[in-house]
Structure formats: structure tokens, C-alpha cells
Amino acid sequence: MSSARIVNLTKRFGETTALEDFDLEVSDGEVLVLLGPSGCGKTTLLRSVAGLEQPDAGEIYLKDELVFSRERNISVPPYKRRVGMVFQNYALWPHMNVFNNIAYPLRIKKSPKTEVRRRVREMMELVQLEGLEERYPHELSGGQQQRAALARALVMEPRLSLLDEPLSNLDAKLREELRDELKRIQRDTRVTTIYVTHDQAEAMALADRLGVMEPGKLIQLGPPMEVYEKPQTEFVARFIGASNLLSGEVRDQDGQRLLQLGRGLGLPLPWSLPLSNGPALVAIRPEEIIITRNGPGLLAKVKSVTYLGNAIEYRLVVGGIELRARTGPGEIYTVGEQVFMRIDRATPLAPRRVRARRHGGDPRRDPPVR
Fold it and tell me: What are the two backbone dihedrals, phi and then psi, of residue 185, each rounded to the nearest 5 degrees?
């Protein structure tokens, strides 16, 4: 059963289209992470679902309830949607202590005082803020503020939780710690969650399903491993992790399948790759390139070496083409060394779509959309 369904949602700001015929369905209890560059419409989508923005067209369902329809003139106000939202800046009331911040949604609903106390204590225990009830936001660390904002979003037992880059203001170590805390809290509460971020590691770690957005559109949706290993477009291949993107002509020659790249260079491809002869665009992840000193493979020269701790990244030059390759930390090659490289796996891509965010306009001149 779906907790949220978004149908043909469109939202414009003047001449700029933030969302265009946007469709999305979120299943009960899942964490769906939307990943995309700044300005692709992620925040606009969350605000529309929460009722903080009025779309220009389309419908929004929460469970089986229609909460927005421009065509039917339906717009349920935010406080009646039972949606919890955590903003990027946490949006805690500075004049209220932690207890009162978390209790605020229940008091708006006029819940009994005993129920308010019980629920706030439960939430503070869940997010590990016990003993900080009387502190004010300015007396909390960034991580504690984030926990308080999350507790406030969950205290009313929402049917949907919306998180808008809640970890982006934290340092890297704390962000990783709280990412694990968010996974624990969602596992304990089973609240259906739409989580927005532009951090790829965060998205891969948290998502049951991962959606990749480019301006106004959802272009790929699936389990994180599938999206990473089988990107469907050039945009996804570039945005999720690092990729070598090669365009050429596929040919069968001397018992090999080759990607002819020009300059006389034919790059051998795995026979398992679902490609027919002709023009092709393929993505090759750096870890899918195998490097050896004794072959088999094409002769290449090591241009640069970058130590990454758990891996080493190489820039290889083969036939005038530069490729990124990544190995484990135990495989060490030096700059200028001659090596052999071969492709273990590659992914065929659809041609890149170029779309203007204004009808007849130039996407490079469009103002950013959140």
C-alpha cells in the first residue's frame, strides 16, 4: 500500500518550471531518497506535499486521502495533513525550550496534557535527548538541534515524514553518526519517509529506493545498488559516483567486441554487454577497470596516482584517451609506469536529454529552483 502518491504535479515560479508532470509513489514504511543537484526542484516537491506550496497542476494523495487537486479545487491545510517536516535549518523556536519545541504540534492539536508529556518523553528517549528538556536551541549542539527537530516532526505520529537535507549543516563526522541514528529511528518507528539530499553517500546509505532528479523531472528510480550499477542516462552516470563516459562505434572484430573510439583505438568490451553494432555511449566505473603489469589488455601509461585510504585512483592514458581506474590499496603503480588495462564491466546509456526549463529558453540562464 502506498503512503503517498503524487500525480502529474507541476509547479512554476514565474517563467521557471520547478516541477513538470512529476509522478511518484512511496510505499508504506519505506525510506525514499531523492537525490539531485541544487535547483532541481527537490525542496519544492517536499513543500508541495507538506502543503507549504500550492502547485499549479496535479494531485497529491496521502494514504487514500486526496489532499491536493488544482482541478478539483482541493487543498487540505498543512496542519490537517499529518505530515512531519524537518527543514535544513531545523526551524526550532528560539524562545522555547526543547520540551516545548517538541510538544508544539501536539498543543496545536489540543492534545491532553498527560498525552503531551508522555509523547514528548517517548520522543526524547527515541532521539537520545533525555535530560535536555529545559535547554533552549542556542544551548544545543548542531547534532542535538537536529535530533530535537526530528523529534518534533515525529511526535504527532505522522503518516509521512519529510526531511529536507537535515544533515547538511553538520561536519562530516557528525553527519555520518547522525545518518546512522536516522536509520535506527526510522527502523524503530517505521514512519514512511521522503528524504531529500544532494550528498551521494548519504543517499546510498539511507535509501530503500533512490530517485535521481534533474530539473523538474524524476529520471531514474530504484534500489541504490541498481541505480549505481545500471544508470540509465548519462546524467545519472555522471551524478552518481564517478564514471568514464565513452562514445564510439561498436564493432565485432577478430572474435572481440570493440568500442571504436577513433584514432585507431578499439577498446575491448565484455561480450555480456547488451549492445548491438553501431553508435553507442557506455559508462565504465573506475573500479570496473582492471590494471595488471603482465596483461592481458591494452597498453596504458599511468598519468597520476591519488591515494584515497581504502582505494587508489589512477589516471591512465591509453591511445590518447584518459581513463579513471580504481584499485584496492594493496595494488600500487607509479606515475609513468606502463601497465595493461581491460574492462571488466560497462553499462550502455541512453543519449543525453537536453531540456530547457523555459519553453524556448536557455537552461543556462534560468534562475535556480530549490
Answer: -65, -40
